[in-house]
Design a protein that fits this description.
By secondary structure, the protein is of the alpha/beta class. It has seven helices and ten strands. The termini are far apart. The structure holds S-adenosyl-L-homocysteine.
C-alpha cells in the first residue's frame, strides 16, 4: 500500500493528523527533499527506511515502492504542500495502477494557503475578485498558449503564481501587458510557514526589483490582486439586512 501524503507548506506541525499518523506507521518513506521540511521525518518511526526523492528519477522511486510492496511493506510518498498542485503525482498513480499496487491520497496545506495565512489575507473579497487563478510562468515545463500569464491577467482575478521566480522580469511585463495596472498590489511570499518565511509587499510594477533587492530566486509565490489593498465590500452572509437559511434579516 502506498499513501501519498501532503506534507504541508513548511512548518512541521502543518501536516494533517492523518498524514502524521500515516508517516508514523510507514515502513518506507520517500520524501521530496527539495521542498519538504526535514523536521517532518521526526514523525516517521526509527525503523523506517527513508529515501530523498530529490536525487531520484521516477523509475528509481517506483523501484523502491515495488521492492517495499514485494516485502509486504507500507510506503508513504511525502510531497510538499498538497500533491494536487504541481506535484508530479499523476505519473506515479498511473504506474502504480499499471502494476496493480494500491494507493490513496492524503491532502495537505498547499503553499498558496500557507501564503494567505502569512499575509493574513482573503483571496476572494466581495467587490474585488471571486476567482483565484493558480498558474505559473512557462519554464522548462511549457504552459499552453491559451494560459499565458498575459491572457490570464486579463481576467483581473486574484493570481497566485508558482515556480516563476526565475523569470520574474518577463512575468512582471506579461502581467502588465495583460492589463494589470503597474500600481496593482502584489506580494512575494518566500517559504510561507517555514521558520525563515519572508513577505515582501510591493506593486506589480515593482515585482522584479523587489525580488532582486531581496535576493528571492526560488521557493516563493508571486501573488497579485486588489485583495491586497484596502477596498472591498463586506460579505452579505453576515450583513444584518440579509436573510439566510439560519438567520432572518434584522430590519
Ligand atoms: N505542491 C506544492 C507546490 C509544488 S511546486 C504546494 O501545494 O504548495 C514548487 C513551488 O511551490 C515552488 O517553486 C514555489 O513556487 C512554491 N512553494 C512551495 N512551498 C512554498 C512555500 N512554503 N512558500 C512559498 N512558495 C512555495
Amino acid at each position: 500500500m502506498v499513501h501519498f501524503v501532503g506534507a504541508g507548506s513548511g512548518a512541521a506541525d502543518l501536516i494533517t493528523v492523518r498524514g502524521a499518523r500515516l508517516l508514523h506507521e510507514a515502513d518506507v518513506v520517500i520524501y521530496a527533499g527539495s521542498l519538504v521540511n526535514p523536521e517532518l521525518l521526526a514523525y516517521a518511526s526509527e525503523a523506517a527506511e527513508i529515501h530523498n526523492s530529490a536525487a531520484m528519477t521516477l523509475e528509481e522511486v517506483m523501484a523502491v515502492i515495488r521492492a517495499a510492496e514485494a516485502a509486504g511493506k507500507t510506503t508513504v510518498r511525502l510531497h510538499t504542500g498538497d500533491s494536487s498542485i504541481y506535484g508530479a503525482v499523476r505519473e506515479q498513480f498511473d504506474l502504480l495502477e499499471a502494476c496493480g499496487i494500491e494507493y490513496d491520497v492524503c491532502p495537505g496545506v498547499s503553499s498558496f494557503c500557507g501564503a494567505a495565512a502569512a499575509l493574513k489575507a482573503e483571496y476572494t473579497l466581495p467587490g474585488i475578485s471571486q476567482t483565484v487563478i493558480i498558474s505559473r510562468a512557462a519554464g522548462r515545463t511549457p504552459v499552453p498558449a491559451r494560459e499565458s500569464i498575459r491572457s490570464l491577467a486579463a481576467h483581473g482575478a486574484t493570481m497566485i503564481l508558482f515556480l516563476s521566480m526565475g523569470v520574474i522580469d518577463s512575468l512582471q511585463a506579461e502581467l502588465i501587458e495583460g492589463g494589470v495596472a503597474p500600481e496593482m498590489p502584489a506580494a512575494i511570499v518566500y517559504k510561507a510557514t517555514w521558520p525563515d518565511e519572508r513577505i515582501y509587499r510591493c506593486t506589480v510594477g515593482a515585482l522584479a526589483a523587489t525580488a532582486r533587492e531581496n535576493r528571492v530566486t526560488k521557493t516563493a509565490l508571486v501573488i497579485v490582486g486588489g485583495f491586497l489593498g484596502h477596498e472591498y465590500d463586506r460579505c452579505k452572509l453576515y450583513s444584518p439586512d440579509f436573510s439566510t437559511e439560519f438567520r432572518s434579516a434584522k430590519l
